């Protein structure tokens, strides 16, 4: 249990969160999926703020290397196991004051390759975590995705917009629908069991430690650029995305669980600056000083026939601004440069 309860201090906009998070109380915090890309940065920030962190991760897409820097820290504990193990989750939730639930099957490629595992991990895992938190009355944040907006065309996407996904015969939409069901379940708990739950709908989040192995575009492009290899763009490259730096996102997640006004709400978190995938490829070449050439490959060839993608995906950050004073501070060139530095260090 916490030695003292209260709010985690809010980061000042425009300052580095690592420096501004000061410990005013020690909380025990569980991060499911904490050895993953976003979870490990969250772990860094919370430990730097003086909290105790337990990570529960099955290491399916996460890695020990992401949290190796905390080995030997008495305030850090890594449990290798699954969020599907209810008695384990129950024990860990009991030991903690707050829970960040990030464990999930992630990435379009993984979802196309392992559709059953995807749905089970996302929906059943969230069900377990929410039930355990409801029994103990713990604050919990779940991580949903901009994929929930489906084929919506009213850009920028607002949290209360209608959503439009594709046919159930197209596995690509299983990720979006499972995450949408997680949102329904979280909101149902908020109403029925009074669970203090916040829902972050994350847009493309990028930065050091993200792996390109599962089809993520930024690590794939930057890695190719660093090695002066061809950068393969899927489709015509004129589809747009907006990329947020993982440190901006992890900071917002901490603020959400610290802000009771976020409970029972969905909040978009991301960056609202829009770039085409062709521009992203050009930026990767420019920032890394690469001699890579850009090539294009049809979606069907990469993902199989009938693959559907969204042309634009831009968040409205109005709600995040109002509730959290959230403003993304790190832009594309800084993201590419941080990712390139990480890739060079790891090679
Ligand atoms: N990165 C993004 O752009 C993005 C966008 C939208 C939503 N999200 C969401 O954010 C969360 C974190 O994603 P990420 O990008 O860090 O991906 P990630 O794959 O790096 O992290 C997911 C972590 O969950 C772990 N995991 C998977 N199944 C598990 C299980 N059954 N039990 C315990 N651990 C398990 C993996 O090993 C991994 O460490 C996910 O919920 C994801 O859906 C991410």
Report the total helices. Answer: 12
Instruction: Give start-end ranges of low-pLDDT stretches.
Output: 1-23
Q: What assembly state would you assign to the polypeptide chains in this entry?
A: single chain
- The CATH topology annotation of the domain at 17-205 and 246-270 and 315-328 reads as Rossmann fold
Category from helices, strands and their pairing: alpha/beta
Question: What strand line-up does the widest sheet have?
Answer: 3-2-1-4-5-6-11
Round the mean pLDDT to the nearest integer and report it: 90
DSSP E strands, number:
13
What small ligands are held by the chains? nicotinamide-adenine-dinucleotide
Distance, first to last CA = 41 Å
What series of H and E elements makes up the topology?
A: HEHEEHEHHEHEEHEEEHEEHEHHH
Morphology: globular
Radius of gyration, whole Å:
19 Å
- Most strands sheet: 7 strands, parallel
What percent of the residues sit in helical stretches (DSSP H or I)?
A: 25-40%
CATH level 1 name of the domain at 17-205 and 246-270 and 315-328: Alpha Beta
The second-level CATH architecture of the domain at 17-205 and 246-270 and 315-328 is: 3-Layer(aba) Sandwich
CATH superfamily of the domain at 17-205 and 246-270 and 315-328: NAD(P)-binding Rossmann-like Domain
| Strand-residue proportion | 15-25%
Structure write-up:
This protein is α/β, with parallel strands linked by helices and 347 residues long. It has helices spanning 17-20, 37-48, 86-95, 108-113, 115-136, 172-192, 217-226, 246-257, 277-288, 299-303, 318-324, 332-346; strands spanning 28-32, 52-57, 76-80, 98-101, 139-145, 197-202, 205-206, 231-234, 240-241, 244-245, 266-269, 275-276, 294-297. A seven-stranded parallel sheet has the order 3-2-1-4-5-6-11, sandwiched between helices. Strands 7-10 form a two-stranded parallel sheet. The longest helix is centred in the middle third of the chain and has 22 residues, at 115-136. The protein is globular and about 55 Å long. The N and C termini lie far apart (41 Å). Mean pLDDT is 90; it is low at 1-23. Bound molecules: nicotinamide-adenine-dinucleotide (NAD). Nicotinamide-adenine-dinucleotide (NAD) is lined by residues 32-33, 35-39, 56-62, 82-84, 102-104, 106, 121, 125, 143, 145, 202, 204-205.
